[in-house]
Design a protein that fits this description.
The structure holds two protein chains of two kinds.
Chain A (H helix, E strand, L loop, with lengths): L5 E3 L6 E6 L5 E3 L2 E2 L24 E3 L6 E6 L5 E3 L2 E2 L1 E2 L10
Chain B lengths: L3 H10 L4 E5 L2 E4 H18 L3 E5 L4 H13 L3 E3 L6 H10 L3 E5 L1 H8 L5 E3 L1 H10 L15 E6 L9 E5 H11 L10 E4 L6 H13 L2 E4 L5 H10 L4 E4 L1 H12 L11 E4 L6 H10 L4 E8 L4 E6 L1 H9 L3 H4 L7 E2 L4 E5 L12 E6 L19 E9 L5 E6 L4 E3 L2 E3 L1 H8 L5 E11 L3 E10 L8 H11 L8 E4 L13 H9 L1
Parallel strand pairs in B: 1-10, 3-4, 3-5, 5-6, 9-10, 9-11, 11-12, 12-13, 23-24
Antiparallel strand pairs in B: 1-2, 7-8, 13-14, 14-15, 16-17, 17-18, 18-19, 20-21, 22-23
Classes of the chains: A mainly beta, B alpha/beta.
Chain lengths: 96, 499
């Protein structure tokens, strides 16, 4: 998936921007995300229903994937069934 | 990815929050995004290849920046302080452009260049009329250039530095937490819009959802007044501004500064006595020194509030010295010090500062300055201590090469400034038949003091430094030439000393 691609969830309102990506399937709420939204939403998988937070960045353990949440929703993000986690960086003092 | 995403997210998360306050007018994030979308329509209609701003700071800078981004056209704010001939030459390099601001001047000096020119009020009105219905517009994907800035040209003719969407987003996403500002937070922006700090200030605050309070024209009284009136929490200043703010407070100007949590500074060398005085005057305020360049999308290293207070309180000379350092690299940025052959130097050794990271463009319209591995040679000289704190010692181009020996102007200037009668000093190269380059000094005598004799100054330098640092020429001047960002114009000093 090309950096800068905007992906939409097939299960909820979540939208993400791809910052970095490999060849795996990016999912939300347990279903593959795509550039277009399906006419009817799929059911949310219970294992992937913790929700997404606007402005948070989500990464995998290897740092091969990084997604920026630009619209929050009820599903949570995964790649090939493995949950992504939020990237927590120490906040920097405002410098400008 | 397009930088307009920053404003789109702010408008999505906090549509009714005030994004910009300027001259008493308030703009919500939703209004700013609508206006930027209207600007997209205007830019498309005009056929412009650049969007230029020839104006002081206002909401128009935000609307033009993001409107240009949506249209996929570089935003190019221009320095309105330039002389007509210099400005006309820059306008010629970006024709045809949509120029916002000083219509009379553009028509007079560049009327034949094919620009579309709008006064600020015309522009802001027009973009509000042109806001498209619905959301079916295809905006630029943001794979190209977002901003083009002409460098200040303190050493040569202005170069066109280009910043891609990816560089600016690399900086903002790496340095700023989305929506991290409280509802009441406000940032006072006083840096001119054509400076990289003026652009990054807008993007940082918008992404943090922090209200931007603009002060188009700096005076210490206006600055202090706005801090109180708008309950400003964050501010960025250049060193000369902080010096003048302190002088105004010391002179009895009344001010309510209780809201001010954070002051960041950068853009030039901060005199030690000024920052020490500021820390005393604002005991509750966190100070951050930011070091960055146009070509690096703003800040690459910073000295944070804890470092400032720790340095001020420390008896350890190493820790205390950090008050004059540029701090440590951002987590997303790598910094190396290299010698003239490009070899990496160990801690403590001075050389040229190299920078690498997503936010580093190092690219000019004419060519990229990046070297192997994506490193950008900044032409700034400095060293890092063993804990990774960066110390700057001036521009690499300012080094005086006297008889094959490299001499940093800073070391001589620091010694001169210890003299009670010297208010300001600049050392630079002057032609010398004997040495190739000799040392010239331009000195400003402090008010109420006698002008020191040449022998006395030579003795001061000889006692503290080597005899190779002795000046070949000394001029006493009423003031040294600085640009509006507080950057010493050594090029101009060289001219004074050559006469």
């Amino acid at each position: 998936m090309k950096p800068g691609t905007r992906l939409k969830s097939a299960t909820c309102d979540t939208e993400v921007m791809v910052i970095r990506s490999g060849d795996g399937t990016i999912e939300c709420g347990g279903a593959a995300m795509a550039e277009a939204k399906p006419a009817d939403l799929l059911p949310l998988a219970t294992d992937f229903s913790a929700g997404t937070l606007m402005g948070k960045r989500y990464v995998d353990a290897d740092n091969a994937y990084e997604l920026l949440c630009v619209k929050p929703g009820k599903g949570s993000l995964s790649v090939d069934g493995v949950a992504l986690v939020t990237k927590d960086a120490k906040p920097l003092p405002a410098s400008d | 990815m397009n930088i307009a995403l920053l404003l789109e997210m702010a408008a999505e998360a906090a549509p009714d929050r005030i994004g910009v306050v300027c001259d008493g007018k308030r703009w919500t994030y939703a209004e700013l995004l609508s206006a930027a979308r209207g600007a997209f329509e205007l830019i498309e209609q005009s056929g412009a290849q650049y969007v230029a701003l020839l104006d002081e700071s206002s909401e128009a800078a935000v609307i033009a920046l993001f409107g240009a981004a949506l249209a996929g056209v570089p935003y190019c704010p221009l320095n309105y302080r330039l002389a007509d001939a210099d400005l006309a030459a820059l306008l010629g390099r970006i024709a045809p452009a949509l120029v916002i601001g000083d219509e009379e001047r553009v028509t007079r000096i560049a009327g034949d260049q094919g620009h579309t020119v709008l006064r600020r009020e015309e522009f802001t009105l027009k973009v509000q009329e042109l806001v498209p219905e619905g959301e079916d517009r295809a905006y630029d994907p943001g794979e190209g250039i977002a901003v083009q800035l002409f460098t200040s040209g303190t050493t040569a003719a202005p170069k066109a530095a280009i910043l891609r969407h990816s560089n600016l987003l690399g900086y903002i996403l790496g340095a700023v937490e989305f929506a991290s500002a409280d509802e009441d937070d406000a940032a006072l922006v006083v840096v001119p819009p054509y400076h990289i700090a003026g652009i990054s200030a807008l993007m940082s605050s918008i992404y943090a959802n922090r209200r931007i309070v603009m002060l188009p024209s700096f005076s210490p009284e206006a600055w202090l007044g706005l801090v109180g009136d708008e309950s400003v929490t964050n501010a960025f200043v250049v060193p000369t501004m902080l010096t003048r703010i302190i002088a105004a407070l010391d002179g009895g100007t009344a001010a309510d500064l209780t809201s001010l949590r954070s002051i960041a500074y950068g853009g030039g060398k901060m005199p030690l006595e000024v920052i020490q005085r500021a820390l005393d005057l604002f005991p509750e305020t966190g100070f951050t020194n930011a070091y960055g360049l146009t070509e690096t999308s703003s800040t690459v290293a910073l000295l944070g509030p804890e470092d400032h207070r720790a340095a001020l309180a420390s008896d350890d000379p190493k820790v205390r010295a950090r008050l004059t350092s540029a701090g440590q690299p951002l987590p997303t940025v790598e910094i190396e010090i290299r010698d003239e052959d490009g070899k990496t130097l160990p801690a403590g050794e001075a050389g040229e500062i190299y920078v690498r990271g997503d936010q580093v463009s190092g690219e000019y319209k004419e060519k990229s300055a990046l070297v192997e591995g994506g490193w950008f040679p900044t032409r700034d000289a400095g060293f890092m201590d063993e804990d990774g704190y960066l110390f700057l010692s001036g521009r690499a181009d300012d080094v005086i090469v006297r008889g094959g020996e490299n001499i940093s102007p800073g070391e001589i200037e620091d010694v001169l400034l210890t003299h009670a009668a010297i208010a300001d000093a600049c050392a630079c190269a002057v032609p010398s038949v004997e040495w190739g380059e000799g040392i010239g000094l331009a000195i400003v005598v402090r008010d109420g003091h006698e002008q020191p004799g040449e022998d006395e100054l030579k003795e001061l330098i000889r006692a503290r430094l080597r005899s190779s640092r002795l000046p070949d020429r000394i001029s006493f001047v009423t003031e040294l030439p600085y640009n509006e960002m507080g950057k010493l114009l050594r090029r101009e000093v060289k001219k004074i000393l050559a006469d």
